[in-house]
UniProtKB/TrEMBL annotation:
Domain called Peptidase S9 prolyl oligopeptidase catalytic: residue spans: 538-739
GO biological process: proteolysis
Organism: Gluconacetobacter asukensis
Cross-referenced InterPro entries: AB_hydrolase_fold, Peptidase_S9_cat, Peptidase_S9B_N, Serine_Prot_S9B/DPPIV
Domain Dipeptidylpeptidase IV N-terminal: residue ranges: 160-460
The protein, known as: Prolyl oligopeptidase family serine peptidase
Amino acid sequence: MPSPSPGRRPRRLMRRVALSLPGLLLAAAAHAAPAAGQCYADLAATRNFTLGLPRHAQPTPDGRAVLFLRSGPRDTTLHLWRFDPATGTETELARPTGTESLSVEEKARRERARMSLTGITDFTLSDDGQTALVSQGDRLMQIGVTTGKVSDVPGRGWIAPRLSPDGTHVAVVRDNDVHVVTLASGHTVRLTHGGSETLTRGLAEFAAAEELARPDGLWWSPDGQTILYEEADSSGVEKHYITDPQHPATQPVEFRYPRAGTANAHIRLGLVARDGGPTRWVQWDSTAFPYLARAVWPKGRGPLTLVVLNRAQTEERVLRVDPATGQTTTLLTERDPAWINISPSGDGRGRSLPRWLPDGNGFLWAAERNGHWQLELRHADGTLDHAVTPAGLPFVSLDDIDPEAATVTVTANPDRTRTAIYRLPLQGGTPVLLTPEAGLHGATFADSGHTRFIDSLSGADGSAVTTLRDSAGHVLATVPTVAETPTLVPHIEYTRAGTRDMDAMIIRPADFKPGQRYPVVLSVYAGPGYKEVLDAPRLSLESQCMANHGFIVVSLDGRGTPGRDHDWERATKNNLIDLPLQDQIDGLTALGKRYPELDLDHVGVHGWSFGGYFTAMATIRRPDVFKAGVAGAPPADFGDYDTAYTERYLGTPQDDPEGYRVSNVLTYAQSLSRPLLIMHGLTDDNVYFENTMKMTQAFITAGRPYNLLLLPGTHMLTDPVLRAHVDDAREAFLAATLKAPAPTATN
């Protein structure tokens, strides 16, 4: 999906431009506080003060150690660490060595995963917790968790590795085929042959990795004897080429990009023995259900299970697979006339729903029942037994099943802006709160350990802390951090706005003076899949930096955004802009009536990706409200965005041309009358630069002035100098065009 921010989950100006961008930067600099640039520079250099925090922390099955990745406070190179909670000591298990070499395929895979850090970017533990497999670029290492012994896995060019459950083998992809390496001997077996740029084995295709939250294309059987792999044939998918203007002698890179209404990759699943042999193909109606959303091969007696969707994403089936024959049986069918949201993917380490009970007599499943997510226990044949989570506590993710205690641990929403972790009986009952601290919590358990878990908290008090807790939620230890303390403190007021009771967030300057009026900046996403207003102030440091330079920054969650209820999110079906635009304006208007410090005569708007799309629409269509906008990487024409995302909300261009017309920035381009700055990376392979090119051409044709800042790079802005420049340019543009960079007194 279009990402909400270049930092988080811009040519010469055309005719009739009143003021050039360099002029804007100079004009704004005259009014900016002396530390304006330093604030953004610090945020960029520290990735919003997240560098140095523990990442992917995971307890060992016995709960006696925690493994995690961590970089320095101002570098992006991750190392693998072991933390002993009993003594409070940490040990570096592995550090990156040599030069990182990434293939085109691995770069694309990381872009899909929004992975921008370097070094040791991932690790996997064996079931006994004694062996860790770590990845650095295209090389692999195995680490003895208790011994600290480091051994290189023979060979280079490996991507997408998956460690066998017993820690003795690794399934991995090279040259678009699946291989298995025996770790003790280094012996390698190539399981598939004939892979090419358009026929890949063991990798998730674009739609799954980008839009379905499925990064995997390889799965081990619980006994480690068989591998399930995806084969993706993208030969029928449109060719797109990306050229790097900084290196004109380099050939363009070809991508197979499934644009809305065009062909997707054709996928199928194969089962092959670890030591090689013929492939048994899994059989389901992939013509009617072409999207593979999840594949789960559980430990215990539960079966290999798939979750598949039709292309319109209005019907979803849970399939039981017989590995011996590849035959499938439908266990459960879900339907929604608008679209189906895929069941949450658990803790992000492959523990997806459905989750089978160890005895195989049933499985846990989640669906949006009665308007909200709930966790359900279903019989082995798919029929409903009962709801596990109560109706008043919307389910977020399943974190653990403890079969001996007959309990589950879940993350849920105590309110619309927070998450918390609860334990409750498998048979249903009163949830027990394990994490009383307000904010956003995320739990990680070991696969076979139920007594201790990691809690990653972005706190309502502005903290960011990773703790080891026991089964009752008591904090046993805090995983060490080397992150810098933020140099600015968020001044956020959370409230509700308008007749629709929208979640709203108001960020005032640190030196806010009652009785003065401030220009307002709407920091916006306003689209599917992302909620702006969350009680986690660390997510709003960029907005606080902007506010500290003479603005009040506002964010709102209107119709079309998640986290409220089924109908609220699906209100924008077949029209992605009209209701969100009206809601943002209604919310601003309501807040302006309540808070006289909001100068609604001077309102600007900015956002990235879908937020950039919204910004362009708002600036063009409602110049009475928005006096200027800064649109980052906007998908201007959703006919040029990908199938799995776009068709979920708009259908295909062939089926609903009107929906695409009303949702297209180009439809309204001739009406641009306010200053608009567009920023876009020239090598963006998510929202292709053709979107901005089409938009600027429409402005030229209509004789409309615009501003353009071209960026080297992709959809993510990972270079700190570049990101700080983008932040400075955004603020400078808004300060100059809103004509009120300094607050004015009220009457």
